[in-house]
Amino acid sequence: MSTRALDALLSGVALLCLLPVLVGIALVLRCSGEGEIFYRQERVGRGGKPFGLLKFATMLKDSPNLGSGLLTLKDDPRVLPFGRFLRRTKLNELPQLLNVLLGDMSLIGPRPQALGHFEVFPAHVKAELVKVRPGLSGIGSIVFRDEESLLSVPGRDPERYYREVIAPYKGELELWFIRRRGLALYLILVALTIWAVVWPGGVPYRSIFPDLPEPAPE
Fold first, then answer.
1. Rounded to whole angstroms, how far apart are CA atoms 202 and 192?
2. 116, 135, 125, 129: which is closest to 11 by C-alpha?
């Protein structure tokens, strides 16, 4: 079975099984915060074509124009109270199952980037990223599951740290995935994603993938 067929099958089954959860979250969001249920943001997809990535709304509507812009920090004041729970549990990402079902995304792949963040990557990385469907999860998502905390270290400029440290290493991780992608790696990363959500204490990805690129010294 191809990974695209698995994407369609697994995302469809997940949407049906999680329907009560999705409806419950939607009702809470409608009755709290600013009343918004979904957040749609343009991201760079396969072939460099933009698509609308869906998430449950967790932040103030004008968040991209406030504070740290497209970067979200730990304890970010723009995040709404119920949104904190959704972000901590990653439930805010569930609407992307629809993106997967429609073919905009895969369950596993490089995370889709907003144009401003996509342009941070070197040209050779961007050229490879647009060859595959972006993913709901992937090796970059697992390694950088706690990215908000990394950006929130006191005295650290989050924009500069993302541009000079996180983005280069994340790019190398995504290249590692693209060069090795296949059904076996797809299934392993699906399992590790579930592990990371259920037991967020840390996934031993280096033990599982000893050939992962090492981060550059800061």
1. 10
2. 135
119 phi, psi to nearest 5 deg = -70, -15
Q: Which residue has the tokens 């997940």?
A: 14
- Which region holds residue 35: left if phi is over 0, alpha if psi is between -120 and 50, else beta? left
Domain range annotation of the chain:
3-208
Tens digits of residue pLDDT in 183-208: 999 999 999 999 998 887 778 999 99
Asked if residue 64 has pLDDT above 80, the reply is no
Give how far the C-alpha of residue 162 lies from the chain's centroid of Cα atoms, to the nearest Å.
15
The pair of three-digit structure tokens given for residue 141, joined into one six-digit string? 């998502």
C-beta contacts of 89-93 below 8 A and 24+ residues apart: 89/197, 90/197, 91/21, 91/25, 91/56, 92/55, 92/56, 92/58, 93/55, 93/136
147 Cβ partners below 8 Å, 6+ apart?
166
